[in-house]
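Hi support team,

I'm opening this ticket because the web form for multi-chain structure prediction keeps timing out on my end. I have pasted the exact lines I submitted so you can reproduce it. The total is 626 residues across two entries, so I didn't expect it to be a heavy job. Is there a limit I'm missing, or should I split the entries? Thanks in advance, R.K.
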Amino acid sequence: MTANRSLHAQAVTLGYGERTIVDGLDLMVPPGRITTIVGANACGKSTLLKSMARLLAPSSGSVLLDGKAIHRLPTKQVARVLGLLPQSPIAPDGIAVSDLVSRGRYPHQGALARWTSDDDRAVARALETTGTTHIADRPVDELSGGQRQRVWIAMALAQETDVLLLDEPTTFLDISHQVDVLDLLTDLNHERGTTIVMVLHDLNLAARYADHLVAMAGGKILAAGDPHDVLTESTVRGVFGLDSRIIPDPLTGRPMVIPMGRHHTVDEPEDVAARTA
Amino acid sequence: MTALVPTETLELVARARHRRARRWWTVTGVLLLAVGAIYVLSLMLGDTFYSPAEIWGVITGHQVAGASFTVGELRLPRATTGLLAGLCFGMGGVVFQSLLRNALASPDVIGITSGASAAAVFCIVVLGLSQTAVSFIATVAALAAALLIYLLAYKDGGSGPRLILIGIGVAAIFDSVISYIVSRAAEWDLPAAMRWLTGSLNDASWDRILPLAIAVLVLMPLLLGMGRDLELLRLGDHTASALGVPVERRRILLIVTAVGLLAFATAAAGPIAFVAFLSGPIAVRVLGPVGSPILPAGLVGALLVLIADFAGQHAFGTRLPVGVITGVLGAPYLVYLLIRSNRSQGTTL
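Hello R.K., no limit was hit. The queue was backed up. Here is the completed structure from your submission:
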């Protein structure tokens, strides 16, 4: 399980029809680490993730999984190594949690669908890891947003892949469930050595949970590396066109972005600190 | 893996899996028995009653006075056509409804069976072709109808509701083609007109059954083999692909197989109204969210056709073709779904 897989986007150009969205981009995903991709809307971050998940073929360049072009590998073979949680997966009406999670075992089963005790164990472990055992018999469509997201992650975990890609796994979740999901993914990374690549909206959470932070703008990578080096005032300006201050997160020491708007901002932040103290 | 899994959780997972499997087999088994029972009943009952022993005699090739003709040449081909056509309509319908995630996206609502029917009536009435040739041409026409609807609906990826509306329009065009051919060719032949407009088993015969039976034998195992893939496709294309389903290839194969079954059934019995449309939702309602609904939907389809035909033959003062009965059953459901889809978004299966 801790086999380190290499995932490498090599000079990929991506687009839909005539429209090019990502142009000649290179990204080496560090094995066994958490990589987070941030960027403004329509900067190509989800498109990049799709191509790394084999959903979108590059018009030039290639995505290499362990050195092999992923788009030429059989779908099922890729699915045993690389899992994906898309942005809006669909749960069929009335499907039970354990049934949905069990579907993660599909790539490991042959044409005749022999279900083995290994499959049961993987499903049980996915339920335990995500804390969804107590709702295993409930229909997915009756769950809250946070629980539902845990169930989808459980399905991806049952797949037992070495690499897991997630497209905005925290969208539509309130802040406590966002932290909850990101903690869960970090546990997974620490305990199983799973390589995680995710697109996140929230810069501060991205900087907090990433080992490797990738900032994208206009279909290109603006900066990539340790969050301390990547998340700078100039990167934030380059990515979002927004002026900001970066201060160390008092809890983690990770860089934290304080956006500067036109209102409620004073010239000397020290004064504010003095006044509220 | 290092983490140990609690035994209770393991048992919970296995228990839930067994429960789902048991439910699927129970429902499918009961449906199978019901289909078998109504099939045998429709052989026995009629203007003259024949005992199971007499029917068995006919099936095993013995001469039984009266029964050899009534059962062997009338009731048996009729019931067999109904059984096979119902299976095809039910299975083909639920494949479309599942793929498009909408009960309205049934092949008989969106013009695919109408396409097959129009081609079949043209080949038979105008060209005078044999049943096997007609079946294949009907399949090609149904595929062409599917492609036509897809191309007309395709705009920025095409959406379900748009495809359904265009399909309903395409169905109306094909239906008017059928009306035209039938009215020109056989003004005196009302049964033929009924067969091509709403579906009928009135002129079922062994040479019509043969191509249909072969299609079922070949295509049904293929379709059932793809049942699990269809279940994964219901999770959305991206999820299915991430789980290892070759999405585009599988979807095309599913559509071609389903269209093949529908077209062969249509060529044999006409587009028996609303059977494809009703079977999937009924099967899903009875089955619940456990396992593939393809085979249960096929059995519900067979049940619907056999019961409706039996009722059409004997329940009313006059003999009604099967499609009239299923049409009466299906139309209110169509209206209900249209009203519901207008109020809320979507009418998932």
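A quick check on our side: Chain A is about 35% helix and 25% strand. Let us know if the file doesn't open in your viewer.
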